[in-house]
C-alpha cells in the first residue's frame, strides 16, 4: 500500500504546541462542532452524547463537558461504573447506562440519579435498589427489535411493560424512556432498518396502551441520525459522529460536515541508513529493495496500534509513509526510501499516525483499512499508555461569549 506524498510545513516545526513524546491530541472544538452538526440533523429531537469506553478513547469527562456546552442534553454510557465516574466529576446532566450484569451496582446508580436501561431481568433488582435508597429509580425499557443483543425479547414485552407500570404505580420507579438499537443503519440500502422501525412503533403502541408516558423514545445511532430522520423520535444517541468520524463506508468525515477530534502523534525516535536487503522487524517480512533509511516510530500494539495494520500511514515532515514489517509491542518502522532524507535528519521529527485529514494527512479511516477493521475500533483502542492532551478546552463560540457578557 502506498500513500501519496503530500507537501506541507515540516512537522518537526512547532505549530502543534509543545513536542510531546507521544500523545492523542483531542480537539474539544471539533467535539463541539460535531455535536452542533448532529444536533442540527436531529432537530427537533434532542441529542444524547454517547461517551462510553472513555468517550471512544477521547476522554469521557472533557468530552462530556464539551458535548453539553454544544447542546447535547443527555449523556449515555454502557456501564453504571462509567456513569458513576461522570457523576464523581461533577457532571449532573441526565445520564443513561444500559449494559448490566448481576454484579452491577444499581443502588449506587439510583443514589446518583443515573437512569438505568432495563431489558427485563434487571427490573426486580432495580426495584430492590430503589426501596433501599428510598428514592424512585428512573428506567428506560429496552426492547430488542432485531439486533439480537440486549433488550427485551418481543414476546416478553407485554409482561415487562405491565410489571414496570405496577412498580411505577407503587412509586418505586418511573419509566422515563423506551428504546431500542439498530443493526444496519450504516448500510442505508438494507431493508432491516425499516423492519426494526416498524417493530419499534408497535412496541411503543403496546406501551402506550398500558399507560406508559415516556419522556423520551429513542432508536437512532449516528448513521441513523444522519440518514434516517424517521428514526429520530424524541432523542438520538450519537457516539461516532461526535468524534468526527463517518459511519458510512462510502462517505468521509468532511462529506458529512464532521471534524475528526483525535490526532495521534509521536516523534521519530531513530533514523538510520541501512544497506539493500535489510530485514525489518520480527519475522523479517520486509526487506529494503535498495540502500535506504529506516525511521523508527516508537508506538506499537501496547499503545493500541493494531498489530495487523502493517501498511498503515505515518506522516513525517510533510510526507506520508506506510509502516513496513511487523508492528511490535512498542515500535514500528517506516522506510524513508529514496526520499533523499539523510539518516539523522529526521531524528525527533513529529510523526503523525492520524489527524483530522483536512490537509490530506493520514486518518483513522486509513488505519481502519490497513487493519481490516472500522474507525470506531482505531480510536477506542488507543491505550492508556498514550497521554490524552486536550486543546481548545475553553468554549469560544459566539453563544457562550454572549453568555459571559450578559
Ligand atoms: C454505542 C451505542 C450507541 C452509539 O452508536 P454510534 O454508532 O457510535 O453513534 C448508541 N446506542 C447504543 C445502545 C450503543 O451501545
Key phrases:
406 residues, alpha/beta, TIM Barrel, Lyase, Ornithine Decarboxylase, Chain A, domain 1, 2 domains, 8-stranded parallel sheet, 29% helix, elongated, disordered N terminus, binds pyridoxal-5'-phosphate
Please write out the topology.
Layout: E1 22-27, H1 28-42, E2 46-50, H2 52-56, H3 60-69, E3 74-77, H4 80-88, E4 95-97, H5 106-111, E5 115-118, H6 122-133, E6 137-142, H7 157-170, E7 173-179, H8 192-209, E8 216-218, H9 222-227, E9 235-238, E10 262-267, E11 270-274, E12 279-280, E13 286-287, E14 292-297, E15 313-316, E16 319-324, E17 332-335, E18 350-354, H10 364-370, H11 375-380, E19 388-391, H12 398-405
Parallel strand pairs: 1-19, 2-3, 2-9, 3-4, 4-5, 5-6, 6-7, 7-8
Antiparallel strand pairs: 1-10, 10-18, 11-14, 12-13, 14-17, 15-16, 15-18, 16-17
Helix pairs in contact: 1-3
Second-tier CATH architecture of the largest domain: Alpha-Beta Barrel
Distinct compounds present: pyridoxal-5'-phosphate
Count the strands? 19
What is the rounded Rg? 24 Å
Relative strand content: 15-25%
- Derived structural class: alpha/beta
Mean pLDDT: 93
Q: Predict the CATH topology of the largest domain.
A: TIM Barrel
The CATH superfamily name of the largest domain is Alanine racemase
Strand order of the largest sheet: 11-14-17-16-15-18-10-1-19
Shape: elongated
Number of helix segments? 12
Unreliable stretches: 1-16
Overall number of domains? 2
- N-end to C-end Cα span: 55 Å
CATH class category name of the largest domain: Alpha Beta
Described by strand count, sense and barrel closure, the largest sheet is: 9 strands, mixed
